[in-house]
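Sequence, please.
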């Protein structure tokens, strides 16, 4: 059996924060429950919520999963060039906590200590990853792999207010740093993540489970589905699990169909955050700088996630 992959998870985790997405929490749980992953570091970034809230909720979930020893570092409080876009709120009974800064330094130190062995899974805006690349010239070359939950390539967001997928839209300058780094990352975008979902009935069953994480996650997921049904997706009875699919790609790459592409990101204007994918294969086409997911085996992913959650 192969040794587990060393993984750092970079996240804007907001599971439990009122009115916030819950998929980051499942991504953290999957990274802990997958026997093929050795989660060495969790770094937090501004995105779904502010960094202080993301850090506190990450520590809360690690406690609930019985893994308080996992190192957590707080990271970028705002995008590279702009103000922070969201502030969070903690659920009742959860008090603000902090960790040593700074995430980008911790990422660089981990990669320097294990050259060629660390997979960074970035499921929030790419600010921390970009800062690590800018701070340490050897960081990009020292990465074992980079998996990004971000982008939309064969579809659209369906929103003129947010034309780019959220993680890229929040900090497109950071995405450009990553795309120009010579790291050919795996990009798991909305084309595939929208196809993996959790139903309200499943969330309600989780909420009734006595496990400290499972019950917390179930309540948060039920509240998030209710929020989506009342705002963005009237009548929906489910929500997508964007971020766990990126974590699954580390040990289960066959869940995804991947193809090479050259990506460019739009920094501003009516196409802010849009990733333009050149899929050409001719001799004069630009060099591949990314691998993008174009299909997913959703039932196989659901089975993998369920099996890993049972190990918590």
């Amino acid at each position: 059996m192969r040794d587990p992959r060393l993984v750092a998870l970079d996240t804007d985790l907001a599971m439990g924060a009122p009115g916030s997405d819950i998929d980051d929490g499942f991504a953290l749980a999957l990274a802990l429950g997958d026997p093929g992953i050795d989660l060495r570091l969790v770094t937090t970034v501004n995105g779904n919520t502010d960094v202080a809230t993301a850090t506190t909720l990450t520590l809360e979930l690690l406690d609930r999963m019985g893994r308080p020893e996992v190192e957590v570092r707080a990271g970028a409080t705002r995008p590279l060039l702009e103000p922070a876009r969201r502030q969070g709120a903690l659920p009742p009974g959860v008090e603000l906590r902090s960790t040593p800064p700074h995430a980008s330094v911790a990422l660089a130190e981990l990669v320097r200590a294990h050259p060629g062995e660390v997979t960074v899974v970035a499921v929030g805006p790419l600010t921390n990853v970009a800062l690590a690349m800018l701070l340490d010239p050897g960081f990009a070359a020292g990465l074992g792999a980079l998996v990004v939950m971000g982008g939309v390539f064969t579809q659209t967001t369906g929103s003129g207010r947010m034309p780019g997928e959220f993680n890229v839209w929040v900090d497109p300058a950071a995405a450009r740093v990553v795309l120009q780094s010579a790291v050919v990352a795996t990009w798991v975008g909305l084309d595939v993540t929208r196809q993996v979902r959790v139903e309200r009935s499943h969330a309600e069953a989780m909420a009734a489970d006595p496990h400290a994480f499972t019950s917390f996650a179930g309540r948060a997921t039920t509240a998030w589905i209710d929020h989506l049904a009342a705002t963005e997706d009237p009548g929906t009875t489910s929500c997508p699990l964007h971020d766990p699919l990126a974590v699954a790609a580390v040990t289960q790459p066959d869940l995804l169909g991947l193809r090479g592409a050259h990506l460019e990101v739009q920094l501003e204007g009516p196409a802010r955050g849009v990733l333009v994918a050149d899929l050409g294969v001719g001799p004069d086409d630009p060099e591949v700088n990314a691998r993008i997911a174009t299909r997913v085996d959703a039932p196989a992913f659901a089975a993998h996630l369920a099996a890993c959650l049972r190990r918590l």
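Residues 19 and 223 are 7 Å apart (CA to CA).
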